[in-house]
Amino acid sequence: MNIKEILTATIDFFKKHKIPDSRLDAEVLLAHLLDIERIQLYVKYDLPLEPQEVAAYRELVRKRAERVPVAYLTGEKEFMSLPLVVNKNVLIPRPETELLVEYVIDYCQDKGIDGPNIVDVGTGSGAIAVSLAHYLPAARVLGIDLSAEALAVARLNIDKLGYTGRVKVIKGNLLKPLLKMEKDNVDIIVSNPPYIPRNELGNLSPEVRQEPWMALDGGKDGLDYYRQLIKQAKAVLVRGGIIVLEIAYNQGKSVVALFDDDWEDIKVKKDYAGSERLITAALV
Ligand code: GLN
Fold first, then answer.
1. Which of 130, 169, 200, 273 is the most exposed place for a label (fewest CB within 10 A)?
2. How many angstroms is it from 194 CA to the middle of ligand 1?
3. Interface pTM (ipTM) of the complex?
4. What is the CA(225)–ligand 1 centre distance, in A?
5. DSSP string of the chain, one letter each residue
6. Which atom from ligand 1 is nearest to the alpha carbon of 193?
7. Is the pLDDT reported for residue 72 higher than 90?
8. pLDDT, tens digit, for every residue of 84-110?
């Protein structure tokens, strides 16, 4: 079998299994297996594959047909143009979340904040933490996560991209590890917390349902973590420090209502698709 034949057969197979991006997925998996760029598949269209390559590809294809997300099969996902390691213990970084990172980068540049202390709550793969360190060359970032398995992935990414000096991670529940400390000097808190209302978890796509529930389940109304975080943040942020949170498209109003008079400049920002995606506020 050559590349052309196996791709054609796989795309058909994926279509039968109603895999949404059948061609893209077939190509990404084959390029990953052969360790070449996707475009090279077309350059080498007539290249015959080794039997063990065919066997290994079939195994990936079978798993994809069972709705395992492509990123879990390749073990990688690009975020903010950085190649990140992922596995089933972490939420796969979403393109929408780049808005949060871009917001923080712009904020620091606009305000001339040079070396901010940033805390990323629920860091997961470390996508937000590492990309902030990458694009803010003097920033120091602390990632917190309750999952030891997720922190292992975050550490891999920090290490692989060379940020062990400026990005640290610790295990803990939201900001609790910092609440015990004396006086804090955190300038920016960021988080993409779990925010899906519990009764909507069942409606998620088969792919998303293979991601860690603890990264998705936001409690009864999806707002559990915002309630706790916004309260805890007051004890951790410097005066004038900001919190920047990802939200679901329909949560803007409810999350705005969680900020009391200790906060100002409360803003909801839309993503490129026009959905509310981000909320930010400054501590008075
Ligand atoms: N954006 C994720 C989704 O689409 C949800 C992530 C979260 O709960 N923070 O499933």
1. 273
2. 7
3. 0.90
4. 13
5. -BHHHHHHHHHHHHHHTT-TTHHHHHHHHHHHHHTS-TTHHHHTTTPBPPHHHHHHHHHHHHHHHTT--HHHHHTEEEETTEEEE--TTSPPPPGGGHHHHHHHHHHHHHHT--S-EEEEET-TTSHHHHHHHHHSTT-EEEEEES-HHHHHHHHHHHHHTT-TTTEEEEE-STTHHHHTSSS--EEEEEE----B-GGGGGGS-TTGGGS-GGGTB--TTS-HHHHHHHHHHTTTEEEEEEEEEE--TT-HHHHHTT--TTEEEEEEEE-TTS-EEEEEEEE-
6. 9
7. yes
8. 999 999 999 999 999 999 999 999 999
At 208 the pLDDT is 97
Atom of ligand 1 minimally distant from the CA of 122: 9
pLDDT at 154: 98
What is the value of pTM for the model shown? Answer: 0.95
Specify the pLDDT at position 181.
Answer: 74
Pocket mutation for ligand 1, best pick of 86, 94, 229, 250 (most atoms within 8 Å of C-beta): 94
Give the Å distance between the CA of 10 and the centre of ligand 1.
29
Please report the atom of ligand 1 found closest to the CA of residue 194.
8
